[in-house]
Amino acid sequence: MTIPTPYLLYLGDSADPADVKTSRGIAAFRPDVCVGEFRHEDCALTLNLPRMGFEQAVAAGAKTLVLGVANAGGKLGEALIEDALAALKAGLDIAAGLHQRLANEPRLAEAALKHGRTLHDVRVPASDIPVGTGFPRAGNRLLTVGTDCSVGKMYTSLSLVDGLRARGVSADFRATGQTGILVSGNGVPLDAVVADFMSGSIEQLAPARNDDGWDVIEGQGSLFHPSFAGVSMGLLHGAQPAALVMCHDPSRAHLRGIPGRSLPDVAECLAANLEAARLTSPNVRAVGVALNTSAMDEDSARRACETIGAAVQLPCSDPYRMGVDSILDRLLESGKSSVEVAA
After folding, report:
1. What are phi and psi of 64, to 5 degrees?
2. Distance (Å) of CA 142 to CA 102, 135, 239
3. CA–CA distance from 271 to each of 134, 210, 315 (Å)?
4. Is the C-alpha dihedral spanning 174, 180, 181, 184 positive or negative?
5. Domain-by-domain residue ranges, the chain?
6. What is the CA radius of gyration of the chain?
7. Each residue's pLDDT tens digit, 76-91
């Protein structure tokens, strides 16, 4: 799929920063293709891009409105549809990675045809996905995992790829969600894949490689999140990872979308992920913890990294804020045996 750029990024009337993670991720990692943001008057969120209406964005060169929002169930709300209709009329294509596909909304399909525009549905898996086998395959693969969903697995993965390349190590980002696919231009929308084919889709996404480089595979969900654990398990088995990096948001009060259900302990969660990964990768090891400290001041963020790192005896950093050197040092150590997580 080729989606015309530049993009106008959609925030709409979102109030929760986690709800606009797709738009935020594109702005952070592909600022070169972003001309502005669209948000309603009551939206306090911003990507620090020029605020534009649809006609203004077209005049500035925008080709596609990216509906970079992620709501529960991935549905097109009425306000979202109305905004998309206005954007089509103004001359923009529409791209989205929601579960409810743009092409299945009759009003959008009719408007796209009328105005000569294209609807780009990102969350559409390929039709030729094999069933996973778990058979050993060559290559170095790192998988980011999490204590919850939306804790920074994509940010961590992209930061690790950049860090490896900066050290002269060949590295490729393997996207498994709508944001990663829009950032990188390809990948597998894993949560849209039929369950029986999840592990096979990851074996296909990150096949055997025979150099000394790394495939860094973007994680999804959490083994400890009742809503999304199935996707996480399929990823662990299909990735056949040599290494795991645990992602965590220390400021989060509860699992996303489930008030009253607390996040798991980092050490407990990491131990469970290692155990599950050993089905297809017996020698998997943990190499670090990545914290999302965006809601914390600098001193609090560094204290959190020190405390959690000491508790699990692993390098701990906020990759986007503090870099990934300590994690890469551990990853690239030669002859390192599997890490035992502190109880």
Report:
1. -140, 135
2. 33, 17, 8
3. 20, 29, 16
4. negative
5. 7-121, 140-331
6. 20
7. 788 889 999 999 999 9
- Check if the beta carbon of residue 177 is closer than 8 Å to that of residue 154: yes
What does the pLDDT look like over 203-212, one tens digit per residue? 999 999 999 9
Q: For residue 342, what pLDDT is reported?
A: 37
263 close to 221: Cβ distance less than 8 angstroms = no
Return the closest-CA partner of residue 159 out of 134, 180, 135, 130. Answer: 180
The distance of Cα 162 from the centroid of its chain, to the nearest Å, equals 15
pTM confidence score: 0.87
Write out the CATH class of domain 7-121: alpha beta
Contact of 161 with 173, CB cutoff 8 Å: yes
Residue 190: name the closest of 209, 203, 177 by CA: 177
> Whole-angstrom Cα distance, residue 204 to residue 200?
6
Q: Do domains 7-121 and 140-331 have the same CATH topology?
A: yes
Q: Which tokens hold the place of 305?
A: 């990294």
- The CATH architecture of the domain made up of 140-331 is 3-Layer(aba) Sandwich (3.40)
Q: How far apart are CA 293 and CA 249, in angstroms?
A: 7
Reported as a pLDDT band with limits 50, 70 and 90, residue 57 is very high
**Beta-carbon-side half-sphere exposure of residue 61 (alpha carbons within 13 Å):** 7
> Is the pLDDT reported for residue 245 higher than 60?
yes
